[in-house]
Task: inverse folding
């Protein structure tokens, strides 16, 4: 049954719901029967007698949300097609305009459903979607429409109302968010989701706005919320339109940027705290746009993901990083290793191990010259499958596995052993202000002590002051990386920087000898 038809049936039932029901009808039965007989005789009385049970049934259905007819109005397991959603949005705008009222579109993303599906299966995820749909319906007015428009996305089309301004919609969005984020127990397990919300009021749209433009505006607001999430709420505005247009322009350029060499690795040095020597470099993707200059990674990495170009980015980063390593070898630099970040999607590529082995052979480099940076959350969420096999096999080849952002996930000690992790890369949240904050210092010391007992190397990232650098060395952290050492730089600048860095180390040693 089409959603619009279901909605109209719902309106009829809601009107019936306003009529007296149940015991209230009984009080009117004598008057109704007498009036029917007086006006139409026995025939009219017979018709009333037949119609009364039918009216009782319809009224009862409007009261019972579990009745089959009520469930047919908006089944939670139906994904509304995009075209149908646009048609319903057009209808909502027309109704609001005809009544000189306002409407609104609210789009909600239930973050965490993907993880629940991976860990507990499709049945648990679908049961949770049904619960979320029911909660939304319960928190809204009978005339408001709740649509499921994706695996983790819902849309609300508000019925015409006097109050659909910014303040009212913000309060409504916050109430919906609280309701959706309540814990849900399914099959004995408690599940949580984070609800990010974007919305637009018809008051903020032009008079000629269509349902498509209203939905697009709400989705733009949702995209902004997701980039500031989790659990963020954003309203659509003209400034978001400009940001959306700029984003669309970047999305059109991003494919060409990969093939034309605009996106390439820059390298940030990592140094040993005991010797000061370069112990490796991390390859970081940078987009040098011919007109916009440097595009922040937070912008274009999401675009590459939407354009399904992450595998291509991985290929570019791997090839150019290994080529840079060969160039540094020829220049006489001692840079033991280059580390590359791989997303969970890339790590699920069944051909990843063979591709990396082939690239290393092509450049004549040993497997120990390549580091694989894997987020702790990826290891914690993916104990089995292709992703796990790829990481284990690369470790067995001799590639170094760095556990990135350590301390932000929940990887177990067993996982550290199983995935053959060589080094813990301590998240900068543990490093910031350790030279000034005693509690921060104790927490970091505990992490370093654990790593030492597990015979794992440690690297602190985000080191931004000489005080942090010095204290990390004193606490026994093996390697450091951050602005206090060097900012990311193109491959050609690494040659000059490395030589100057080596000269600084030699000067310090000579000064130490002369002082002795």
Result:
């Amino acid at each position: 049954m089409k959603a619009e038809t279901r909605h109209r049936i719902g309106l009829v039932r809601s009107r019936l719901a306003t009529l007296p029901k149940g015991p209230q009808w009984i009080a009117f039965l004598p008057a109704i029967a007498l009036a029917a007989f007086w006006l139409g005789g026995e025939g009219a009385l017979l018709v009333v007698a037949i119609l009364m049970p039918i009216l009782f049934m319809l009224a009862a259905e409007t009261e019972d949300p579990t009745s089959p007819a009520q469930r047919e109005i908006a089944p939670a397991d139906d994904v509304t097609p995009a075209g149908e959603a646009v048609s319903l949005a057009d209808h909502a705008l027309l109704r609001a305009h005809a009544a000189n009222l306002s409407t609104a579109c609210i789009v909600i993303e239930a973050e965490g459903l993907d993880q629940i599906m991976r860990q507990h299966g499709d049945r648990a995820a679908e049961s949770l979607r049904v619960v979320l749909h029911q909660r939304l319906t319960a928190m809204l007015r009978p005339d408001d429409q709740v649509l499921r428009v994706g695996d983790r996305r819902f849309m609300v089309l508000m019925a015409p109302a006097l109050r659909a301004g910014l303040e009212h919609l913000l309060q409504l969005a916050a109430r919906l968010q609280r309701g959706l984020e309540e814990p849900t127990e399914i099959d004995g397990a408690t599940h949580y989701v984070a609800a990010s919300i974007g919305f637009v009021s018809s008051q903020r749209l032009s008079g000629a706005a269509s349902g498509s433009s209203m939905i697009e505006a709400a989705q733009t607001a949702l995209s902004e919320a997701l980039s500031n999430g989790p659990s963020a709420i954003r309203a659509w505005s003209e400034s978001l339109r400009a940001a959306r247009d700029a984003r669309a322009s970047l999305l059109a350029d991003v494919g060409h940027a990969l093939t034309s060499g605009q996106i390439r690795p820059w390298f940030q040095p990592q140094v040993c705290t005991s010797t000061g020597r370069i112990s490796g470099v991390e390859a970081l993707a940078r987009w040098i746009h011919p007109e916009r200059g440097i595009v922040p990674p937070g912008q274009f990495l999401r675009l590459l993901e939407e354009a399904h170009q992450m595998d291509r980015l991985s290929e570019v980063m791997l090839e150019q990083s290994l080529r840079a390593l060969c160039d540094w070898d020829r220049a006489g630099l001692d840079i033991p290793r280059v580390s590359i970040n791989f997303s969970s999607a890339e790590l699920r590529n069944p051909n990843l191990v063979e591709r990396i082995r082939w690239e290393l052979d092509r450049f004549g480099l040993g497997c120990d010259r390549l580091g694989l940076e894997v987020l702790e959350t990826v290891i914690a969420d993916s104990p089995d499958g292709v992703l796990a096999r790829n990481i284990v096999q690369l470790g067995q080849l001799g590639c170094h596995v760095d556990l990135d952002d350590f301390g932000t996930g929940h990887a177990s000690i067993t996982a550290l052993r199983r995935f053959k992790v060589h080094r813990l890369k301590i998240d900068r949240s543990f490093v910031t202000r350790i030279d000034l904050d005693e509690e921060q210092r104790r927490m970091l010391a505990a992490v370093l002590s654990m790593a030492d007992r597990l015979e794992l190397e440690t690297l602190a990232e985000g080191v931004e002051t000489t005080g942090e650098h010095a204290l990390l060395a004193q606490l026994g952290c093996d390697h450091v990386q951050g602005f206090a050492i060097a900012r990311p730089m193109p491959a050609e600048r690494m040659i000059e920087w490395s030589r100057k860095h080596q000269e600084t180390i030699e000067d310090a040693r000579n000064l130490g000898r002369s002082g002795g």
Summary: The chain has a mean pLDDT of 82. Residues 3-72 form one domain. The two ends are 89 Å apart (CA to CA).
